[in-house]
Amino acid sequence: MSPKALLSLIVLGGVLLLASQGLYVVKETERAIKLKFGEVVEADLQPGLHWKVPFIEVVKRFDARVMTLDTNPSRFLTAGKKYVIVDAFAKWRIKDVRAYYKATSGSRLEATNLLAALLNKGLRDGIAGRTLHEVVSGERDALMTILTAQLNEQTQVELGIEVLDMRVKAIDLPEDLSRSVYNRMAAERNREAREHRSQGQELSEGIQADADRQKVVLEAEAYREAEQTRGEGDAEAARIYASAYNKDPEFYAFTRSLKAYTESFRQNDVLLLEPSSDFFRYLKDAQGKQ
Question: Which residue range or ranges hold the Band domain (predicted)?
Fold first, then answer.
């Protein structure tokens, strides 16, 4: 190889080396900052192809996507001096690259630690001013909205981070307090159950007493109507008998005697009667004459 060709290769290699060290690309999902001897010379580099001075300037890239901070469950004290265990998380992303780098030196672990500390402080202050009921259900959503706004304002100034959302996954009570709450709830439910049973028993006795009263009234009215109907029937029968007797008293007496014979002689009983008794007069004479 000639010296000229060798020189050309050396120059080409140097150019390629300078290009590889000087050219860099910032992706759409990244935020970048340019440093010169550790000092920030350009912040918030836009996505695309850029140039830097080789071996002098350094480019730091950071993930610009939304990230999740999942904190460990922590104990907080409410306004009623009751402890609660809160498990929360936050959605965040880099807002100001210069402030983010200065606060965390570009370390995501450091950023999450600082953000977790601020989040816990916000939760502690917010929960301390509210009762257990307000924290658990009453003002939970409103509390999260307020804490998100306050935390976002603080982190943008101190960390260059924007907090998009903050939510509570679970709120639990300590074991001793949970047992006390459950016992109180059980006692309250038992009291309500006894009250309902007492009311039901009272209502049942009232219904039973009313049913018994109606039964007595209905039976009395039915007996009265039955006796009245029976009396009317007996009266009608007596009237019919009297009418038939008046039409033919002799025939009526004859039929009555035949009926008496039929009912008497059907049985095996012994009758001790005088032969001259009126009971046998129709047996002696068809006209019933003595």
Answer: 21-185
Confirm if 106 and 119 have CB atoms less than 8 A apart: no
Q: Which residue's structure tokens are 């929960």?
A: 127
Give the DSSP per-residue string, 10-47. Answer: HHHHHHHHHHHHHEEEE-TTEEEEEEETTEEEEEEEPS
Cβ neighbours for 36, distance < 8 A, ≥ 6 positions apart: 53, 56, 57, 58
pLDDT tens-digit profile of 151-178?
999 999 999 999 999 888 888 877 766 6
The CATH number assigned to the domain with range 67-173 reads 3.30.479.30
d(CA 282, CA 290): 9
230 phi, psi to nearest 5 deg: -65, -40
pTM score, two decimals?
Answer: 0.55
Q: What's CA 263's distance to the chain center, in Å?
A: 81
